[in-house]
Structures are given as C-alpha cells and as structure tokens.
Amino acid sequence: MKAMSAEILCIGTEILMGNIVNTNAAYIAKELAVLGINVYHQSVVGDNPGRLREALELAFSRADIVITTGGLGPTYDDLSKETIAAWFGKKLVLHQPSLDAMTRYFEKSGRVMTENNKKQAYLPEGAEVFDNPNGTAPGCAIEKDGRIAILLPGPPREMQPMFDHFAVPYLSRLSGQVFRSHCLYFYGIGESALEDRLREMMEKSSNPTVAPYAKTGEVMLRVTARAENEQQAEALLQPAIEAIRAEAGEFLYGIDVDNLQTAAVRRLQELGLQTATAESCTGGYVAKRLTDVSGASEVFQCGLVTYSNGMKEQLLGVSHETLERYSAVSAETAAEMAAGVRRVSGADIGIGVTGNAGPNASEGKPVGEVWLAVDSEWHKETIPLTFFRHDQDAREYIRYLASSRALHLIWKTAGMKDKS
Amino acid sequence: MKAMSAEILCIGTEILMGNIVNTNAAYIAKELAVLGINVYHQSVVGDNPGRLREALELAFSRADIVITTGGLGPTYDDLSKETIAAWFGKKLVLHQPSLDAMTRYFEKSGRVMTENNKKQAYLPEGAEVFDNPNGTAPGCAIEKDGRIAILLPGPPREMQPMFDHFAVPYLSRLSGQVFRSHCLYFYGIGESALEDRLREMMEKSSNPTVAPYAKTGEVMLRVTARAENEQQAEALLQPAIEAIRAEAGEFLYGIDVDNLQTAAVRRLQELGLQTATAESCTGGYVAKRLTDVSGASEVFQCGLVTYSNGMKEQLLGVSHETLERYSAVSAETAAEMAAGVRRVSGADIGIGVTGNAGPNASEGKPVGEVWLAVDSEWHKETIPLTFFRHDQDAREYIRYLASSRALHLIWKTAGMKDKS
Could you tell me if A156 lies within 8 Å of chain B, comparing CB atoms? Predict the structure, then answer.
C-alpha cells in the first residue's frame, strides 16, 4: 500500500497571534509518524473563513488527509465545521446523540446550556462522529472522493483523548492495520550513544519501527508494530524489546512509565519502601516531582528544603564542623543531609542534594557544581555532578537535571534492596 | 503608513515530526503584534530545499516580510540560508566578524571548531548580520525589491535574544518608530473581568495599546507605546499605567516582574524579611517556585514538605488532637503548619498548605479542597480554596494554583508589614 500523507492545519486566532503555543501540531505529528503517515506541512490560520478555505484548498493539493484543530466551539467566530463542510459540499445536520451527550455534560458540571451551544451538535451529513467526553464540541471525519478531513477540538485536553480514541482507530482502518506501541525510558545515556548501540537493529527492522525521542537528560524509545490485530502486533513487539534490552538494558528504567518520578514511586510502592529528601540547591524540585505522582503519599515521608546552613544543622543535624571545613557544597554535606533526613523521618531511603545552581558562584564553588547523596541500610553513595551552562536558562536546567538524577538514584537504590 | 504583514515560517524536520513543540512561532507572533505587524499565516516545513522554496514563494505572495527559524546550523541538512539566498538571487560570502565571534565562542566553551562550522559564517551578500552570543549561527535580514526575509536560528534560547536585540530594532526602523512596552501582572481577577474594567480605555486608546494575556490563574497586560524615541514612548506609557492602576490596582502585583515568585522574593529582599513554608498537598511546589528565583537564599529559610501526619506532628508540632478532630485537610491544620514552620525556622512569615489534590478523596475530603494559612507577628489568616476539576491534568492544576495563591499570600503579607 502506498504511504498516505497528511497535513496538519491548526485554526485559531489565539494560536496565530502567539497567545497559545501550538502543542496540538506536535502531538498529532508524532502520532501520525507512529501510524506511518507522512507529514510534510503544518499550517496555522486564524478564525477566518476565507483564509481557511484557501488553506484547505492548498492542503488537499499536497496531502491525502487534512487534520484540523480548533474552531468547533459555540461562538460566532468558530467556523471550522461550517467552512469545511461547505468545501466538501455537505450540509450540517443535527446529530441527536451529540446533543444528548452535551446536555448530560452540562447537567454534570452544573452549568446552563445556552442556545448557541446546540450549534456544536450540528455535524456534516454522513460524517463519522467522534465523542468528546472532556468537553462539549464533538469532532468528526468527513470523506469524499478520496479526500479525508478530520476535525478535532482546539483544547489539548479534549483533542488528545479524541485523537487517541477515535482518530487513531479511524486512520488504522484506512490502512487496514492495527498499530501498537510501547515506550521505553532510558536514563544515563545520550540519544546518539543509544542510537549507536541500536543502529543495526533500527536500520534492519521496518516492523516494528524504533524511534528515539530526546527529552531533557533522558531518551525515550517508541517501538511500534503494525499487524492485523493487537495480539499479532504484541507478538512482534516483545522480541524487539528484548533485543533492545540486550543492547542497552543497563540504562532502561521503565516501560510505559512516563517519567522518572513515576518509575521511582511505583518501585517504592511495590517494595513497600519509604523515601525522604533533603534539598538545598534544588529547593523542593525533587519533592515536587515525587508528589506529582498520585499515590506518592504511600512512599514519601517528608522533604526538607534547607536553604540556609543554620537549617541544615538544626533540622538535619549536619555538623557545624562539616559545613565550616568542607562548605555546604560538598560530598560531606550531601551525605550528612541524606543520613539526617533518613534519621529524622524514619524512611528507608534518604536523599541529599546540595550545590550551586547559579547564577553566581557561592561558597567558593562554581555554578554547576552539585553533590548528591543517598543513605540507606543497604546502600550509601555520594555522586558529584557538574553542569557547564551559563545562559539565562542555566538555573532551571541545572535544578531540573539534578532532580532527575536524584529521582533515578531513589529508583536505583530501591532496586538494590532485593539483592542486598 | 500602511500596516505591514509578516508570515512565520519555521524550518526543521524535528518540528514537522512533532519531536519539538514550536514555541518559536508563538514567541515571534506575539512580538510582531506588539510592533503592529499583522500575521495571517504560520507554516512549518522540514529541512527540504524544494518544499522550502515553495513555502517561501507562497509566503511572499501573501506577506511583506517572511521570518524564518531554523536550518542555520553547521550540518549538511541545514539549508535555510543557501535556499533563501538563492531565492533572492544572492551569493553567500564570508562574514569575517561572524567567523571571529564563532572562533571565540568555541575557545570559551572549550570545544573544537570543525571545518563545517565555518559554513555558518557565510552569509548572503549585502545582508544585515545579527550576532548570536548564545550560539554559533548568526542570523540576518535580507531585503530586495521590497521583500524582506529575516533568518533566525532554531533553538529558542538563541532565537529569542536575537529577535529582541536585532530583529525588533530592524523592524522598528522599517516603520520609522520606536516601540516600548511594560508588562503589568494581576492576580485574583480573571481575564474577562479585567477586560470589563478596562474596556473603555482599551477601545479608546490606539497608542498606547493594551493587550491582555491569560496565564494559568493570572492575567498579564502588555501596554505598548510607539513614538519617535524612547523618552516619548515612556511619556505615553506612564499615564496609561496610572489609569489602569486606578481601575484595577488592587489586583496588580507588579510591573515587569515576570511572575509571582519573583514579586514575592523581591519584596522580601526589599523589606529584609524571611519566609519559610510547610507544604502537604503542594509537595514542595511553593519552595521550588520560590527557589526558581536567583537570590531566594537571602529570604527563604526553609521549606518542610510534611506529607504524612506523623511528620506534621514531629517536624512542625501540629497537635495530634487537631489532626484527629479536624483532619489533616482543615483550617486548623493549615494554621498550625504555618505557625510551626515559623517557630522552627525563625522566619518572619510562615506559610502552611494542606489539601487534597486528587485523584481520589482522602481524609474524607473531596478532591480540590485546599487550606492555606499564613502566620506572622503582624498578620495571620486562613484561606479556603476549592477547585472543581477532575480530568487527567487536575492534580497539576490544583497544585499549581494552590502554590500561586501561597506565593501571592507571602507577597501580600510582606507588604502589610510596613502598615502594621
């Protein structure tokens, strides 16, 4: 089958004017790559019927499928559906199930459904309707003469689930295949080093495909198989994942786990362990990320942000002599912070982070020098981190990467308990 | 003078494929609005000379100015400059000052400059060159027959300063005017309520212009004046800012301060006050945001993240009876946390936050119930917050808004010291 191509057309004056960053285009582009659909153009136009018609004409001159976001709402300037239906020569007709769903949605959220909201339940005749459980405007797919338009709402929290649950199955049906992915999360290896290890397998294999995504300080690999059904796709995926594990398993911290904090919290839950954190330069970033994860309360005792030396002594019992002799930014202080917070909280794993996140040198230590320590009955370790970056985002960058390393250290230390 | 129009053309396969979210387009669009330049289209194409030429042709058929990002780097697929120069019928010539700057940049960062890096110092003949102190690839502006192309690098931390320091003055010169803005930050009033208060003045005034930007839980107003020089622009701005202050001054927390945490830290610094935080449901988010601000160490004593009841008792001295009788999610617990962290740290202002950020009810309290308290010698207050949101992003939303309110409370309480 010839590869299909799609164009992403985001509609909305707020995106055009820069009041909203266009995360929808990135989300859809990434998902289309997984489905093997090529994207050569993304465009943005405002809520303007004339320019939308022109953009549609242009998009269909160079792609089989046009995926739009935005302009499905109830107000007078939401004109995507009207304009696109007219372009396809289709009328808008009332879709009763959508009107019923919308009525229920308004009842549930305790708001009043006004007359102009009903406009959202009118959809192009013959369209396949996509439910919107997270909002009021349904989406749809329109097909005519081999041209396909997929209309999605603008807010990402409505668009993303609709894309996953309706657009992906619809597009899969077009290709007659099922797509299934797993995401593998790596820490401690760069994107190019990981690609080097997997190059041969990535080049040889067209099904499953393996695509790397660099995140700040991490790499995610998405492994995607296509097959006639989910079982067959899964059967293709498992040996590919084992092959990746054989090449780079020492850096793999989880499959389908989303991020380091979730991997750490889930492992602590599984093993029935508790952690506690003592932070200086990261200022609560480790605690904040751990508690991003629902269920963190089961495994997270407390986090002490001891910014001043006095607090390090008073709350964590770091010795005055250590601070005087080695400074607050040192291996010794990090280790005493980790031991101190474990003692204070009674947690199984204590973490200490201290350093200089900039922008100015302090304690006689350069910007970017950070010390990390872990304390537990079965494992103690002190790790020096050095970051070379001095631009305006250096502070956030250093603090984020130091907190990532701390989360990974919790995950790693918890995993060593079994073997100790 | 007729209003100019510009098209934003972002070049790069990583944006096209969705591996990078296109924040550049939003940044540039917003800045162009300030300059009074209309934007009707944004487009994205990959690193493909053929499609770039077509996109350029199309863009100049509908706009006076085309602003590109990306494709200025040293590798073989960075072809923006070559393709655009050819489209203008211009040769690339060595720009010695750029080569010198690049050599210095490599020396400073201790890396070796390879031969292909030199390609970045070749620029279209007659172009106005834009320095890049944050990277290696210079940008430039090319003009011919009334058509203008502005070429900027792809990484936002290189693109944004270059846009501000070179593209804005260049574009201002085109219009023969100087533009100057101030940003006013509001908390506690919604975008539409603020617009209602200022509607008359916003509609009447075309210079300065007043543009609102909604941020999560906040509103920013940008007031922009154009004039022949900076002094005249500033003279237009001051009365407009005073008029806004008269209408909505009670919600204004700062001018050109960027965010709540910076406003809070700066005010504490000015008044020589210290704060300390005790967090439960926000899990360190308040501490993390305070310490985002460089200089926080002068005013932030410590932050205690007491997730468990035991830790609330042990570290903060919250009474067992209070926790039993009123639960951890209560006004009483929040107040004892605030008082406790102030006592432990000796800070002037103590903050307590406790609540349920979801996704499940806990302590018999519904998701979205949060209690916030402040404790100081001159002001004590307990504030109930209720958030109605239950989708997948609710946890982050509740935690973020609760931490914003806490930061605002620190700012407000510090300001009351003077008057007490």
Answer: no
